[in-house]
Each structure stands twice: as structure tokens, then as C-alpha cells.
Design brief:
The protein has eleven helices and ten strands. The chain has a single domain, classed as Phosphatase 2c, domain 1 (4-Layer Sandwich), CATH 3.60.40.10. The longest helix has 29 residues. The chain is α+β, with helices and mostly antiparallel strands. It has a five-stranded antiparallel beta sheet. A hairpin with a 3-residue loop joins strand 4 and strand 5. The N and C termini lie far apart (55 Å). About 2% of the residues have low confidence.
């Protein structure tokens, strides 16, 4: 039923400065559910282990969803009636698991003198250990009876349901400096999540991405159109992988030069059933894009 894909690309700015890729991404597909997840480590001075923190966020998310689905029958029966409470519990569990992984890592890998050397003693003592690993997180989960997502920090989730429209069911959060953006490392992290839940529409495809992808586009219209186009290409997943890796690499080097991660899950049978609808949406989006361009040119001429 489900299939998926994920990939992370290092941005040109990180290559120039010698930083490692701060992004992590993964997907998991089972008979009954699928998960797509990306995380973007902050990468600034005090978050010097954020590349590890983003990997822990992805790992904590998948293990948490697995545990909630361990009793599939009970979970699927209770979730529609109590989804707000259960989603909050999922958020709390992800944060708890992430903190456990961080604590274990610090215990087994104490901060080195080289890591400390970038700070004065007072500066270093003021940094909470979990901040070393600060990261954002965007998660999409598809089940047989419902779809939901959670997010902390910037980045995007795009869903295409059975009406063929690409939508962002959670409002896009503008990127902010790492010391003020919502983060897994915040002491009140569990209360900083955004979330959505749908059970009236069937999901064709869902995508999570770090903010480097969104900011490589000129507008939200173009960003959503992009997801409709790549959804139309998912039918041939092997060809799609080559196309999307090349595209993400170009955007990470000639767009915002930031790291980019994209993870997707999709319903293979529903995608095939709705292939003509998706194709018609691609055509309609091209026409709307042409109309917007013509309108911009008209306004430009009128102001001269």
C-alpha cells in the first residue's frame, strides 16, 4: 500500500565553511502506517552537536510512532475519538526519547576541549547540555483511517489528498535565529509543537522538508506546484529518485545554499487511481502560473 523516499543534501554554504550537513531525514513504511520525517540541526555556535541532534530527532520519532502502533487495533480505534490528546502524548514521547538519546550521548561522549575552546568558561557554563543538540522536527504519519502531522520549528509539510490539491495543513513557520526558534532543545518543547489531523480525506502523498527547500522558491504558489509535479512522478519511483536527488542538489547549491532534506510517503494504489487527476492539476497549475506571470508583467508596465 505505502511506499516512500527520503534524502538529505548538504548546502553550498556549509561546504564553503567546512560544516557537516545539519539535516537528517528518514521514512518508514509498513502495511498499516507510514512515516516521513526530517530534522534540521541549528548549526550555530552553541548548537555544536546539532547534526547529531537532528539524527536523534528522526530516530526518536520513528521509535515513538512504532510504539503507539504496537497495539494497532486499540490505537486505530481510540485515535479518531481522542486525537488531540494522543497527538500531545506523541509529542511528549518524542521529546522524552530525544532527551534520553542526548543524555546517553553526552555520557558516552563528554564535551571535548576542542568543542569548549570556542567559548569562554562563563559562556560554556551558561549553555544547557541539550542545546548542544538543538534541532527542528517535521513529521507526517499516514494510517489506513487517518493522517496527521507534528512540527516544531521551521520547515514544511505538504499533503495531497484525494482531491488532488497540494496543501500545507500546518502554517509555515518563518526561519528565525536558532536562539529564538522553537526547538527540540527548549525546556518547554512539548508545548511548542504545531499539529494537524485529517480523517475525512484519503491521502495520496505527503512530504516533509527542511526550510532550505521552501526558501529556494519564489513563492508559496511555486512551492506547492512543485509538490504536485513530483507527486505525478512517483509512479516510477526509481526514476523519481534520480530526478529528485539531482534537483535537491541543484537547489542546495544554487538556491539558498542551505542544507535541504525531503522525505515522502505515498499510497501506491490511490496514486495510480488518481493519476489523471494529478496530471490535470499539473496542467492547471502551469496555466495559473502563466496567468500570474502575465498579471505581474501587466502591473510592471502600468507602473512605468
Amino acid at each position: 500500500m505505502f511506499n516512500g523516499f527520503s534524502h538529505s543534501v548538504m548546502g553550498a554554504s556549509h561546504e564553503k565553511t567546512g560544516l557537516v550537513c545539519q539535516d537528517s531525514s528518514a521514512y518508514k513504511v509498513c502495511d498499516d502506517y507510514a512515516v516521513c520525517v526530517v530534522a534540521d540541526g541549528h548549526g550555530s555556535k552553541k548548537h555544536f552537536r546539532s547534526n547529531i541532534g537532528s539524527k536523534f530527532a528522526v530516530e526518536a520519532t520513528i521509535s515513538t510512532i512504532d510504539r503507539f502502533y504496537a497495539d494497532k487495533k486499540s490505537f486505530e480505534e481510540s485515535f479518531p475519538k481522542n486525537h488531540r490528546m494522543i497527538i500531545k502524548n506523541i509529542q511528549k514521547q518524542i521529546i522524552s526519547d530525544w532527551n534520553r538519546l542526548v543524555e546517553e550521548h553526552i555520557k558516552n561522549n563528554p564535551v571535548t576541549e576542542e568543542e569548549k575552546s570556542k567559548f569562554t568558561e562563563e559562556e560554556f557554563e551558561a549553555i544547557p547540555p541539550e542545546s548542544y543538540y538543538g534541532t527542528t522536527l517535521i513529521v507526517g504519519v499516514a494510517g489506513k483511517k487517518f493522517t496527521f502531522g507534528v512540527q516544531i520549528g521551521d520547515g514544511t509539510l505538504v499533503a495531497i489528498f484525494d482531491d488532488g490539491k497540494a496543501v500545507m495543513p500546518m502554517e509555515y513557520n518563518e526561519a528565525a535565529p536558532a536562539n529564538v526558534t522553537a526547538s527540540m532543545c527548549n525546556s518547554n518543547a512539548a508545548g511548542l509543537f504545531s499539529a494537524f489531523y485529517r480523517d475525512k480525506q484519503k491521502l495520496i502523498a505527503m512530504f516533509t522538508s527542511t526550510d532550505g527547500l521552501y526558501t529556494s522558491f519564489g513563492s508559496e504558489f511555486d512551492f506547492l506546484d512543485y509538490h504536485t509535479i513530483i507527486t505525478s512522478q512517483l509512479g516510477d519511483i526509481d526514476s523519481f529518485k534520480n530526478i529528485i536527488v539531482n534537483n535537491l542538489t541543484k537547489r542546495a547549491h544554487f538556491g539558498t545554499e542551505d542544507d535541504i532534506s525531503l522525505s515522502c510517503i505515498y499510497d501506491k494504489e490511490l496514486l495510480e487511481e488518481k493519476s489523471e487527476l494529478i496530471a490535470s492539476e499539473v496542467s492547471a497549475n502551469k496555466q495559473r502560473a502563466a496567468d500570474r506571470k502575465a498579471e505581474r508583467l501587466k502591473k510592471h508596465v502600468e507602473t512605468e
